[in-house]
Prior knowledge:
Elements: E1 10-15, E2 25-29, H1 33-39, H2 46-52, H3 55-114
Antiparallel strand pairs: 1-2
Amino acid sequence: SVRVTDFSSGSEYSYGDKTGSWDSIKIKPGNSTVAEELNAPPPMTASQRWNKLSPGARIGVGSAVGASCLALVALAALYCVRQRRAGRTEAAIEDARFEKQTAELMAYRQMMAKGGFAVGSREV
């Protein structure tokens, strides 16, 4: 970590001319906000903030997280049930289509076996 110390009591700095010399720096008197920021205590970590909460607040947070997880599981289960129902309906439609096509194929085979579609057949 780096520690920066501001030894000036100025609040702003500006150059008096365009030479770039340190002698041309003008200091505006006042309190430096940088010094306040540097000397401020570090922000609390999440663990420290959690430990600072009252027991009732901790219970509330835990309950909210638990309820949210339970709601997500319920939504996932509902989605799965709806998908299963839709799949069952789709499968029934597809089975009916297959049965119809199979019946048509069997009828066609029977006609072919009787010679009803033979080339050169004179029966009408």
